[in-house]
Design a protein that fits this description.
The chain is an alpha+beta fold. It contains one helix and three strands.
């Protein structure tokens, strides 16, 4: 149980650092939409809506590298 608390804390701090980076809305985003966002290192942030999903798997394509990502759901299902 203690290990779970430590892991959860580390993931929380890590995600806070990752998502506090300076991301800007991509030029490919639909008009009026905030996502996807891109930072200076060409890392992307996506926001998807699957309110009943238990997990989400992101797969790269068209030359993207294999992705491994931790996802979280906010109170609105994003």
């Amino acid at each position: 149980m203690q290990n779970l608390k430590i892991i959860t804390s580390i993931l929380g701090l890590w995600s806070a650092m990752v998502f506090s980076q300076n991301y800007k809305t991509s030029v490919t985003a639909l008009e009026g939409k905030e996502f996807p966002k891109i930072n200076a290192e060409n890392q992307a942030q996506f926001k998807v809506y699957f309110p009943d999903a238990k997990s989400v798997v992101l797969e790269g394509g068209d030359g993207m590298q294999n992705l491994k990502s931790v996802t979280t759901k906010d109170k609105d299902g994003f």
